[in-house]
Amino acid sequence: MVYKLIVTERADELLDAALHYLIYQLKNEQAAAHLLNELEKIYDRLEENPLQFPLSQDAYLAGKEYHEAVVGQMNYTVLFCIKEDTVIIAGIFHQMENYWKKL
What we know:
By secondary structure, the chain is an alpha+beta fold. It has helices spanning 9-25, 29-48, 59-63; strands spanning 4-7, 66-70, 76-83, 86-94. The protein is globular, with a radius of gyration of 13 Å.
Protein backbone atom coordinates (compact mmCIF):
# COMPACT_ATOMS: atom_id res chain seq x y z
CA MET A 1 0.00 0.00 0.00
CA VAL A 2 1.25 3.47 -0.83
CA TYR A 3 0.51 6.19 1.70
CA LYS A 4 -0.11 9.82 0.87
CA LEU A 5 2.34 12.11 2.66
CA ILE A 6 1.25 15.52 3.96
CA VAL A 7 3.82 17.86 5.47
CA THR A 8 2.07 20.46 7.59
CA GLU A 9 2.91 24.13 7.40
CA ARG A 10 4.16 23.91 10.98
CA ALA A 11 6.53 21.07 10.07
CA ASP A 12 7.90 23.16 7.19
CA GLU A 13 8.45 26.09 9.55
CA LEU A 14 10.27 23.89 12.05
CA LEU A 15 12.46 22.43 9.30
CA ASP A 16 13.29 25.93 8.04
CA ALA A 17 14.27 26.95 11.57
CA ALA A 18 16.50 23.88 11.98
CA LEU A 19 18.20 24.50 8.65
CA HIS A 20 18.69 28.18 9.47
CA TYR A 21 20.30 27.20 12.77
CA LEU A 22 22.61 24.66 11.15
CA ILE A 23 23.67 26.99 8.33
CA TYR A 24 23.84 30.40 10.00
CA GLN A 25 24.46 29.68 13.67
CA LEU A 26 26.63 26.58 13.47
CA LYS A 27 28.03 27.46 10.02
CA ASN A 28 27.60 23.83 8.99
CA GLU A 29 26.09 23.54 5.52
CA GLN A 30 27.13 19.88 5.38
CA ALA A 31 24.93 19.09 8.39
CA ALA A 32 22.00 20.92 6.79
CA ALA A 33 22.44 18.94 3.56
CA HIS A 34 22.69 15.71 5.56
CA LEU A 35 19.46 16.55 7.42
CA LEU A 36 17.61 17.11 4.13
CA ASN A 37 19.00 13.91 2.64
CA GLU A 38 18.00 11.83 5.67
CA LEU A 39 14.53 13.42 5.75
CA GLU A 40 14.01 12.44 2.13
CA LYS A 41 14.85 8.82 3.04
CA ILE A 42 12.41 8.91 5.96
CA TYR A 43 9.66 10.41 3.79
CA ASP A 44 10.16 7.62 1.23
CA ARG A 45 9.90 5.02 3.98
CA LEU A 46 6.77 6.69 5.37
CA GLU A 47 5.08 6.47 1.98
CA GLU A 48 5.84 2.74 1.84
CA ASN A 49 5.11 1.66 5.42
CA PRO A 50 4.74 4.20 8.23
CA LEU A 51 3.99 1.47 10.75
CA GLN A 52 7.66 0.47 10.72
CA PHE A 53 8.24 3.41 13.05
CA PRO A 54 7.22 3.12 16.71
CA LEU A 55 4.71 5.16 18.62
CA SER A 56 6.20 8.17 20.37
CA GLN A 57 8.15 7.50 23.55
CA ASP A 58 6.23 10.34 25.16
CA ALA A 59 3.09 8.91 26.80
CA TYR A 60 0.96 11.95 25.91
CA LEU A 61 1.93 11.83 22.23
CA ALA A 62 1.61 8.05 22.07
CA GLY A 63 -1.90 8.42 23.48
CA LYS A 64 -2.67 10.71 20.54
CA GLU A 65 -1.20 8.03 18.24
CA TYR A 66 1.86 9.98 17.14
CA HIS A 67 4.81 8.02 15.81
CA GLU A 68 8.47 9.02 15.73
CA ALA A 69 11.13 8.49 13.09
CA VAL A 70 14.67 9.32 14.15
CA VAL A 71 16.84 11.07 11.57
CA GLY A 72 19.94 8.93 11.03
CA GLN A 73 23.19 10.17 12.59
CA MET A 74 21.50 13.35 13.82
CA ASN A 75 19.54 14.34 16.90
CA TYR A 76 16.31 15.10 15.07
CA THR A 77 12.96 13.34 15.18
CA VAL A 78 10.10 13.41 12.69
CA LEU A 79 6.78 13.33 14.51
CA PHE A 80 3.81 12.06 12.49
CA CYS A 81 0.40 10.44 12.71
CA ILE A 82 -1.37 8.03 10.39
CA LYS A 83 -4.95 8.63 9.29
CA GLU A 84 -6.19 5.78 7.08
CA ASP A 85 -3.95 5.94 3.97
CA THR A 86 -2.40 9.32 4.83
CA VAL A 87 0.71 10.15 6.85
CA ILE A 88 0.68 13.63 8.37
CA ILE A 89 4.06 15.09 9.35
CA ALA A 90 3.34 17.23 12.40
CA GLY A 91 6.86 18.43 13.07
CA ILE A 92 10.61 17.97 12.87
CA PHE A 93 12.28 18.52 16.21
CA HIS A 94 15.65 18.32 17.86
CA GLN A 95 15.53 15.49 20.39
CA MET A 96 16.44 17.84 23.24
CA GLU A 97 13.20 19.81 22.72
CA ASN A 98 9.95 19.26 24.56
CA TYR A 99 8.24 18.96 21.23
CA TRP A 100 4.80 18.03 22.55
CA LYS A 101 4.61 21.64 23.75
CA LYS A 102 5.29 22.94 20.25
CA LEU A 103 2.57 21.10 18.35
